[in-house]
Write a structure and sequence with these properties.
Layout (H helix, E strand, L loop, with lengths): L1 H10 L3 H7 L9 E4 L4 E9 L4 E8 L4 E9 L26 E2 L5 E4 H8 L23
Length: 140
């Protein structure tokens, strides 16, 4: 019995079990990630008319915690749909706001970039927690 409990605990964050726990309000195409505060699901879409990336993030209860414009952390151009594959099972930093992409880039909310421009946030000292993060817009 103890073995089964330990096995269940070890497997609880595997994709099969995560999908069983996916709240009904979370779309099927949202990607499961760990955030610093909770389990989460993320989905981003590129709006070609506005040349912007829009991302949504849901918590473990299926409540939307972010639904807004996201910009590349590296200051480069928006992430096109073909480049925007979210890294699965990544523990993102910045309080969960950062979205890590498989191409080595990260997206953060526009308000965070605006705060940096206004001197209210030092993005250089913030670590999004993305593995294989590229350092500049020219790296993608």
């Amino acid at each position: 019995m103890i073995f089964l409990a330990i096995l269940g605990y070890c497997l609880q964050d595997q994709p099969f079990f995560v999908n069983l726990r996916r709240p009904s309000k979370v779309p099927k195409d949202a990607v499961f990630v760990f955030s610093t505060k909770t389990l989460a699901w993320e989905r981003c879409n590129y709006d070609s008319h506005r040349d912007l990336d829009y991302c949504e993030v849901w918590n473990e209860d299926g409540e939307v915690i972010f639904n807004e414009v996201y910009l590349p952390l590296d200051g480069g151009p928006p992430i096109r749909a073909a480049q925007s594959k979210i890294q699965n099972n990544v523990r993102s930093g910045l309080g969960g706001e950062a979205i890590c992409l498989e191409n080595g880039r990260a997206l953060v909310p526009k308000w965070l970039i605006d705060a940096r421009k206004e001197g209210r946030a030092d993005m250089n000292s913030l670590d999004p927690g993305c593995p294989n993060l590229h350092s500049g817009a020219g790296d993608h």
